[in-house]
């Protein structure tokens, strides 16, 4: 086999989690947004799905008492914490800063200050960065399902 089962599981979880964001977003907003395939944030967490699929695959192949599983598990916890913590807060800060710029421009318009630059011409900060805990939970569940499904598809040769 050209690619290892854990890496294949992680890659498939990433791709599938990103693709599934499109119909899930359509159900929520009634609009197709194909840019979600390349975006961070949203349901489910593809970062979580990726690392959980990797960890699950390692656990299946090597057992949960292996050093590889332990390392992967700790990194998975770090990624999941980061998704719901730092990245989510950064997204909330971006949302607030975008609102401040909009309010500032509105104030300038009211005051009719001709020599002040309109800051809204700059690109808005990306607001969809992190995840709600539910998005991370479903990312983890999705990652487990992908790894288990791929393992059940075919018997792996010894050198896989």
TrEMBL record:
The keyword Transmembrane helix applies. Keywords: Membrane, Transmembrane, Transmembrane helix. It comes from the Bacteria. The chain crosses the membrane at residues 6-27, 134-154. It holds the Pfam family DUF212. The keyword Endoplasmic reticulum does not apply. This is Divergent PAP2 family protein. It comes from Salinibacillus xinjiangensis. The lineage of its organism: Bacteria, Bacillati, Bacillota, Bacilli, Bacillales.
